[in-house]
Amino acid sequence: MIGVKRQDKIKLRHIRGKTNITDVTYTIKKLKWKWVGHLMRRKKENWAKDITEWYPRDGKRRRGRPFRRWEDDLRATAGPLWTRKTHDREAWKNLGEAYAKQNNQA
Whole-model pTM? Predict the structure, then answer.
């Protein structure tokens, strides 16, 4: 596309700057954030929202490091009351930018 080889050892962010291509992980995180905000603003009768809010309390997890849950990175960015913050669309959009940019290689 721009004539760069691996031997040139040019950083990926410089190549993306020249080609104006966005990072895939950034796009995925952005879409996840938008979907969660949309989902939480819906009515209570939605099964997808019910499953997202469901927290099983009847068993113990295996020994060792716990698996990452879908909600863990949302909670780390927006705080423990992240479900309430979804109703303020502008603030939620700003938090989404911060979430998509964190731990990004670009």
Answer: 0.70
